[in-house]
Amino acid sequence: MSVSVGDSLRYPGRAGRPRVVVTGIGVKSPAGTGLEEAYTTIMAGKSTAAVVEELVEQDAPVRFACRVPEFDVEPYITRRELRQIDRPTELALCAAVDAVQDAALPPGLAPERVGVHLGTGIGGLPSMEATALNYGQAPMTMPVHTVPRTMANSAAARIAMRYGFRGSCNTYVTACASGTTAIGEAARRIQYGELDAVVTGGFDSAITTVMLSGFARMRALSDRNDDPERASRPFDADRNGFVMGEGATVLVLESLEAALARGARIYGEIAGYATNSDAFHIVAPRRTAPRPRPAWPWPSRTPG
Length: 304
Known about the structure:
Elements: H1 5-10, E1 20-28, H2 35-43, E2 50-51, H3 53-57, E3 64-65, H4 79-84, H5 87-103, E4 114-120, H6 125-135, H7 146-150, H8 154-163, E5 169-172, H9 178-191, E6 197-205, H10 209-217, E7 246-255, H11 256-261, E8 268-270
Parallel strand pairs: 4-5, 4-6
Antiparallel strand pairs: 1-7, 1-8, 2-3, 6-7
Helix pairs in contact: 5-8
């Protein structure tokens, strides 16, 4: 993205608030474990769905998914730390390291002015499921790090501790919208002057027998076990569900003015964000958009 200093500073954000831009990106996805690789795979329309041997061994009803390719985690995580975290946190932490490095944040930033806001659908499900299956009859033998491995906010906490970021450290769980919610709320922290920069994005890794069986029971997953590469076809008349995946994408946000002042590379701008709920159905949207009505009469305000 090319940004002109004169043009960008001529148009302030809404109500005079700063505009928020993306200056760092980190990706650990089925399409690739780096930004360029993932972009190339997506633009080529290459399918990443494949049979997962563990699901075959466990006789799961759906036996394929989109998994992140193997990559060297040693530059990101020590062996000791790896034993303490779950697969979702591993992906999020590695993506965050790439994003922070890509952004090249200046060393003079006050740590209390940098936050971490992440979104996840379910967090540490792999550890939850493995613990229930392996230690259900002998709970006192479970690994000592079981609790932090299963907590949804472990990823955000690990990233904050890695860099010493002492701003707000939040985790949002809003199902499929979790990552978007995190990015939008992070942008607001910058717009309202609470933070100067935020590490934000979404992550999940829930390719487990329980999760896939649950979605399959709802008839939400494609069951094309004999043709996984062509199973994801959301706009096809013959579609029969989505394909489960895993991954993490993390961004670094800061104000446009700060990014221009330090000569940072700008990928794009967070132009707006809003959130609401139609309070209608667990997944289906309303077919109409009725005028909102309060659930009860609002009390009148009289001077006094």
